[in-house]
Write a structure and sequence with these properties.
The protein is an alpha/beta fold and about 400 residues long. Helices cover about 60% and strands about 10% of the residues. The longest helix is centred in the middle third of the chain and has 24 residues.
Length: about 400
């Protein structure tokens, strides 16, 4: 089992020589932190000044990390990956808004995606962000237990209705629905709402999946308590397990506000928390299904080993591995080639609207120790194999 992620021929089998060169060029740029900062500033300036840079962005970073500008635009990528047994999760990656019209629009887009997904075996999941359906500050106020005024009560009811409309459609179409995680100070209300949807629509099997960000030290305890309630009330749990995306912001806010950080004390503690959560789920697979969203090779190997030790089939529908499109192809394509369930998050949306997502991707790759250098070393290895 060890060593399957070294196979670059399988990892990059869908990339043409020119696409391989583009990936190598992009990750060399991302490896340079000052260059990322300058590039980010220049891109933001160009977009705000309405300079005609869409074509340049589309031809480089956008096409590497995104599937297209709309669902139909993503289909060639979806179909191409599915030839190698790698599925897709269409991710409308436009950042959350505070106005009602964009929130209603995001809901309609997810409903449309569900119809689209139902027709494609290659797209087994749909996904949305809580702040795509409701205002961040509203989630935050409810999570703190503060009383809402009459206008806010009506606003929250609309958020609940958006959730219910989408979750009911996912249930009716028999499509699994992932709900992404966000910052801890708004997550309590999002967790409660996701649980409410699970209680309603996960009676027979998991349709609704909530996200556990395991760089938070309290998430395994949360899952254990959630399972107690699920066993009592007769519903199944679906969880996407990730390490997390807001560490610096979380620590800075905790220090500024003077409360203990919700984040694990070290990278090692986060890794241990992630793996312990995954082990707990595998031990309780009759009640909990998992989408393991990680670019960490060791964690992927651990889950593979747990499955083998427990006699779980590689393609058991209760266990999925997931990575982001444009990253960790050596994990995704080699797992799929070895018979595991794998899905790539495939972001899409108008070029300008998706830029905050792309900038975050570049910054995260710069800050995650070893991620970019690993991508580069594998791309170099494949270039050498092809003798480009």
């Amino acid at each position: 089992m060890e060593g399957i992620f070294e196979n670059t021929e399988t990892a990059f089998s869908l990339k043409t020589d020119s696409e391989l060169e583009r990936a190598y060029f992009l990750f060399k740029m991302i490896a340079n932190e000052p260059l990322v900062k300058i590039g980010t500033a220049m891109t933001n300036f160009a977009l705000k000044a309405h300079l005609p840079v869409d074509g340049l962005i589309r031809a480089t970073v956008f096409d590497h990390f995104c599937g297209g500008i709309n669902e139909e635009d993503c289909l060639p990528v979806v179909d191409k990956m599915y030839q190698k047994r790698v599925c897709s999760v269409l991710d409308y990656s436009v950042e959350g808004k505070d106005e009602e019209d964009p929130l209603d629009n995001a809901t309609e887009i997810i409903l449309k995606i569900l119809d689209f997904v139902k027709e494609k075996e290659a797209i087994p999941f749909a996904v949305f962000k809580p702040t795509g359906f409701g205002r961040f500050a509203l989630f935050q106020k409810i999570g703190k237990g503060k009383k809402l005024n009459e206008k806010e009560e009506a606003e929250w009811q609309r958020v609940v209705e958006r959730y219910d409309k989408v979750c009911k459609k996912a249930y009716d179409l028999d499509v699994a629905l992932l709900i992404d995680g966000e910052e801890s100070w708004m997550q309590d209300a999002a967790d409660d709402l996701a649980e409410e949807m699970m209680r309603k629509y996960n009676k027979k099997k998991p349709v609704v999946f909530n996200t556990l960000q395991t760089y938070r030290w309290d998430r395994l305890d949360y899952l254990k308590k959630l399972q107690e309630r699920a066993m009592r009330d007769g519903f199944k749990i679906g969880v996407k397990v990730v390490r997390g995306a807001y560490m610096e912001k979380e620590n800075e806010r905790a220090e500024e506000k003077g409360y203990p950080s919700p984040i694990c004390a070290s990278k090692k503690a986060t890794d241990e928390n992630f793996d312990a959560t995954v082990r707990y789920i595998v031990d309780n697979l009759d009640h909990i299904s998992i989408f393991s969203g990680t670019h960490n090779e060791a964690s992927c190997y651990k889950l593979m080993e747990l499955m083998a030790e427990s006699g779980i089939d590689k393609d058991d529908e209760r266990i999925w591995f997931g990575q982001l499109y444009g990253m960790s192809d050596h994990i995704s394509f080699n797992l799929a080639d070895n018979g595991y369930n794998v899905a790539k998050y495939l972001p899409f949306g108008p070029v300008r609207d998706v830029m905050p997502y792309l900038i975050r991707r570049a910054e995260e790759n710069t800050s995650v120790a070893g991620q970019t250098s690993r991508e580069l070393s594998l791309l170099k290895k494949e270039r050498k194999r092809r003798k480009i």
